Amino acid sequence: MGQLFLSILAVPEKRFTPLVISRWIPLLFAAGLLCVTAAAADKTSSASPLSLWKSGTHQLTFNGRDRTFMLDVPAKLKPGAALVIVFHGFTSSAKEVRDLTGFAKVSDQRGFVAVYPQGTRDSKGKSFFNVGYEFHRDQSIDDVRFVRGLAERLTRDLGLDPRAVFATGFSNGGDMSFLLGAQREPFVAAIAPVGGTMMQSWAKGFRPAARISVLAVNSRDDKTTLWEGDMDNRDGWGAYLSTEAVMDLWVTGLALERNKRTNPGKTIQLRHWSTQIDQTEARLYALEDGGHNWPPTLGDRSETTAETIWRFFDRHRPKPHRPH
Q1: pTM as predicted
Q2: I need a labelling partner for 282 at 20 to 30 A (CA). Which of 15, 41, 108, 247 fits?
């Protein structure tokens, strides 16, 4: 395995300006060695890594490709805070999913860092995350590797808890969240896909490699991510599982037994699986008429969907290590 070079630049809203110069930082992760370069615009090399990361848009080069992402850093960031990765849908953008979900406000209120990676463009110029769609067979982008490296850099520089990294997203971004949770060496503690699914190409034979809790949101009338799935690939995305089959993989793989059904809203059913062994759980918010959209709430009108997802993530933060 060769070296991967990741160079980070901060980007103001209207022009690209390098913030940091001449500094190599080796990071080791599962796929190989990640080397990160940073450089300061003001000729001083004493700036702390924390000062390099501000809310806004940032650009980086990963494996020879320019990648951008948006960042929300709370005003009162505390050491050991969590990192929430929010993925946009097919043809969408980091800015659109940030505006759509409302995680920026929740990030500042609850004290976690939110990062919104921007997908790359396919042969037709459409932005995407590579989860294995049939029409992306010609794409070799390794978005899992990219996001892993990005998460490692942010957690290290911002003093975040590397065990408290979470993933959520909509549509293609929901698929990407499932894909991160399905890794043999996952780096996320919990996932919350909205309007997402699992492709048969990587779901076949899947068993969770870690105790990752899942909160899924799907609508029975979704015409894009079909509730019944599309194992015959009628729509051209590639074969993918039904919502029920996806949840069954996680429930069975995590050995969850207790199944409870409630109705948090008139057209929303919540199915909840848990176990007496630990806090691991799976939740499915089944919407009757939500279509292919990010729902504003999940039944409780006093909190947004982003707030509900954050409460779920916060519940599954690993407990602090206690000295013996």
Answers
A1: 0.85
A2: 108
